[in-house]
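Translate sequence into structure tokens.
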Amino acid sequence: MISGGGGMFVSRNGGQNSYFPVISPLAAVPLGDHVLVETRATILESFTANGHGYDTSHYAALTYLQGDFLVSPHLTVVAGSYLTPFGTYNERLTPIWIGNFQNGPLILPLGTMASSGTGGMVRGSAVSRSSFSIDYAAYFSARSGNEQFLAQRSSGGRVSVYLPKQRLELGTSYGRLLQGQQANFQGVHLWWEPANTGVRFRSEYAHGAHSSGYWFEAEMRPIFWGGENSWVGRFQPAFRMQQTFRNKPDSSDGLPGVNTRLADFGLAYNLPHEVRLRASYSRQFSTAGDKNIWAANMTYRFLFPAWKGKK
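Result follows.
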């Protein structure tokens, strides 16, 4: 399958305007019944106002490239460049056609080790019952200086419990940086999607050597007025609150240098044929200065077979 999305992103961060046309294709290629090769790329142009015109830059890179060997219903062995399984945002919400907000959470760098690893991983469902299920992921990443597959030497994993009747997921993550100034990272996450309400709640907390923080996000589809495909049901308001705490200076962990709070308000409209319009307003509070952040974008999700299948 060839999938992915494309879109136009616009933001005004503290008075500075930026424009980002983006395309992010994804391919999933099965090789027999037990092997799957999957990859995702990001291609974008950046235009940032400088007072006399625009500074431009180009970016094109593979987000990940991995091979999955399906050993059994309880075990998949992964090799290659993969998204680090720490928390939930990195693996589940980074595609441009999924997330409610243009920017990821402030704590995203904590525990994800620059978002990807290069090495091996095992994952799967340890236990699956009608009342609950437990899934796991454990990885080891080697250090890589390759331009396309940058990675840090690290290890870690995640364990999650899902309760299908309550539609509730609770999990914990651990990561260990094994190079340079070695450090431990811990995290927890909670997702809740109560049935027949159109409401979704997501949250994460992460702790590193010199900083920590949390985010929680709530969204709603007003499905009681004709369902998700009615003109009212296509609206999707969302709110995200996040906060980071700094206990020691550290320019390498990717978080703000001072304690920071950020409130995000968003509204999306889901048009037919996988077209989505989104706009958001954010207010940031910190000792380094308060500022407003405005953003808007339009994305299109595409999906089609790469070649004709056999009957």
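Note: The CA atoms of residues 110 and 208 lie 6 Å apart.
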